Amino acid sequence: MNHCKIWSLGFLSLLTIQTAAGQEDLAIVFRLGDKDVQLETLPRAEALDQNSGALTIWSQNGIDRWVIGSPDATAPLAAATRSFDIQMTRDSNPVAASADANPRSSLDQIVGQVVIRGEGFLTPAHGGRHLDGKLTLRRRPQQGEIAFPQDSITIYQGNNPLLEVPLAEGVAKLSWAEIPDLPQQFADGLPPGTYSLRYADGKNNTSFTVEDEETAQWMLARSETLADLLGESSHPLVRVLTIGEMLSAIDEDGKPKPYLCDALDLTEQVSKEDWAQYLREWNDRILRQLKGEEPASTLEQPTGIATIDEARSLILQNRWQEATATLQPLLQESEDRRAQGLANLYTATILSESAADTTAAASADEHFAKAIECLQEAPASDRFRAHNNYANFLLLRSQDRLYNYAIQAASGVSSPLLLSVGQWQQAREQYEQALQLAESLPPGQIAATQVNLARAYVLLADIVQTLCRDEAELSSVGHDRIVESARQSAAAASENDPDAMTRGAAAEILAHLAFRDEDADTCRRHLQDALKAYTAIGYLPGIESGYRTLGMMNLRLGSSAAEQNPADTPLNSLMISQLLTEILRERFDSGRSGAMRSGFFARRAYVNEQIVELLIQQGDAMEALRFAELGKARSLQDVLMSKNLDASAAIDDNGPELDELLEHWPDDVVGLEYFLGSENSWVFVIAAGEVQALPLVDGDGNPIAPRQLIAEVTEFLQGMNFTAQQMLARYQSEGRFDSSWQDALADYYSILIPPSIQNQLTAAETVVIVPHHVLHYFPFAALVTEVDVHKADGFETVMPKFLIEQDLAITYAPSLESWALFRDRDRRVQKVHAIGIAEFEGAASLPGVEQDLKNLKEHFGDQMQTFVTGDQALESEVVKLLHQPGMLFAATHGMNHADAPMSSFLLCHADEVADGHLTASEVFANEVGADVVVMSACFSGLADRSPLPGDDLFGLQRAFLSSGANSVVSGQWDVYDATGPLLMNAFFAELNQGIPVASALAGAQRSFLRDRRIGGRKEVWIHPYFWSVYTAAGSDLVRFDAKPER
């Protein structure tokens, strides 16, 4: 097997430190060896001076740069340099740094699997729950000569006997259909209710419950959906899913409460001769649990530590939440370093599933480091697991960056491609160490590492394919050699006695290679092998990724098999993948922020995107919107539903049904939900209960590429920061103000609100904006509906008309479903609490704060409950205010950390227990009792530079909404001290009249604009920087009771 040469330089940390400090940057050089491709990390200057690599990639000012081959020494390097730098021009398409270097489209995101080493009656069980009233009676054997003597039992409901069942000698099991002389009323089983089952002698009684029909339908709904997609209810995958759902069921308190008897019945419907591996294991596990016996270990090479092996078994069953709880006690420092190390290892392995989220990734990295430290003296098998699983984590992180590089680069994320290659290097090194350790272990461990190495080579081939323009360049960089290394590693794995999971992973890798080669028949053949192997062990993550690739293959390459089986269409296969993703996502703890579930979904959001695109192409806008909603703020909705919030009849345990939401859609509300995919951008328009899906296009009718839109909006928003200083500098240098902003906002108006729907907004009282990505921070209120053609000169300014002047309110919402949840809690606000800090040591003073607080007292004096200012505004005191009902007004400094949004904070004063930074993470950890939160704080930059695919954000606004607030008003950039208090004062006045929060803010903005127009063209404050800084998110109904007129 040919391996890439690796130089371990602690790449990631070194790159981060050097880039952040502005010191010498690094470059990664691809070199062609005799039979392989070698990667070397060098100082950038040295790498570019040598000019000897097949491909060199480096970072310059946070932007990925690369060069293919060795440029002509007489030509400037810049002429050959490539990047995905997007030019911010309306009249040109995105271009790369060199004139002829058009970037390739993003690769289809196909993912695969890395291999993780890691009473008298049996049924009905005492206290058990049953979905099916047609019970199977299984007796426990009795001591004595006759294990199953002749007897009779009676089924009671309360004290009323319902049914007597004779049991013949030797009968251990009796199905419902086998009960003799069964009364017709019980032909379909016992109706819902609680029952007891009693022997004639009164001993060994059992009580059990038959669930109601609604619960049974809810439990089986996804299995029925899967059967419809597959075209047959007897498909093995339907059985895998149904049994898995039954065994993973939880009760009202979130505790495991599986439907063991129903699951056991399903396993025994299949002849034992036809049992797959998962059926044998599940049947044995269920029977042992019913008998009260310890489950037999099915692990290869158990560690001998019962708690660790239990957690490993739960991980293999994708029961991550239970596994995490099992490992928790062993994470503390102890003398048993091996147990502590393994607990950290498998905790990190669980976190790896969600590591698209930066918080989960950082936590996983810490746990892996601790595990490797603790296991230095442990057996080779333990050290093998540590290096293998850490490599898997790094490889997935590399894959995350590669597959989302275009959007990340457009968002200003620093050098995502270079980081992807660096993490690939680290993963490769860890696999090498695992492979060395595996040589002393059973062959199956070698096979696992080889298949993971094959997966690494496939990803490296994708990296190279992303950077090269044509076949000639691919050949010059050694793409064929990398692909061959992947094939050889996969083939080597098959020769080392692999288990079913490893066989499935190897087959899936070969399918991926065939997919990239556009060989549909070979791809399908390998996928069938992979799905067969995964289904045999009931491994849902593998089945999900297999159907993802199957759907993408049918979509991109076509397949005659789809014509033979109508169920085998691209849309059906992708929907199967999406359904399994949703099931697996729910097996993570939603937690306070939902970040774990969001990180897990992020890696699979691409499937959702493809489904939305296909449904729009089919003209089914409503169904497309349904799937767009499935990808919007899912973690927020999970958290809200877990709080048992008041809900209308339109909202069940799964949140609002879209059909119900549209049926009761308010006449005076228009919804705009944006969806930015990999290649296309859309807006769903919801009005009068009808849904349209419209593409976002430029003035010439050409589709706007999402990465182009994101890059342009990001640049526009960055330009809004500290605009007052920029305006002054422009006037001082040129004697006039810039007016190009009105043209940009007019362009955005025609793009974001297509002309065909602009009249609908004119007639609306409220517009609900469900943004996507950077549009969460865009000031829709400032969209220019009519350009001012006057040529402003000197101290004059243009005075266009804005969207907010159409007498409507704008509220932002993470999703339509979360908006319905917020809106349904139409609570009246009674009390006001405030914190205000105008002076800080080491930070600029905020003179506008004192005026804000004075205005607040004037409007709400009799309702003011708590007023914490100056040195008294300690973080611990502010946290106490979070729990109080009413409106919380916070006037202070704020800081957004775009690349670590959970660290964004409101600045308070430090005390003995807190550092003075009230972070988003800390808000998530608290119950917020405030109905309305108003953050009159200066913020700089975006709250979340690159939201997770799936569009979950984790800044302060989302933290307050998730933790209990019903409406949040917040600033998008720095608040100008001379105008901020004017806006807030008008806002308070509107609130005092009983006007809802979003409408009150809109009224305040209109009042501000009217005053500016009265003042004439010298009123430079008409620039949106001064008045559109605030946005309202959440419910559009929450309000104060109107005060009587004085």
TrEMBL record:
Domain of life of the organism encoding this protein: Bacteria
Pfam families per UniProt: CHAT
Signal sequence, start to end: none
Domain CHAT: 748-1035
PANTHER family given in the database record: RAPSYN-RELATED, TETRATRICOPEPTIDE REPEAT PROTEIN 28
Designated name of the protein: CHAT domain protein
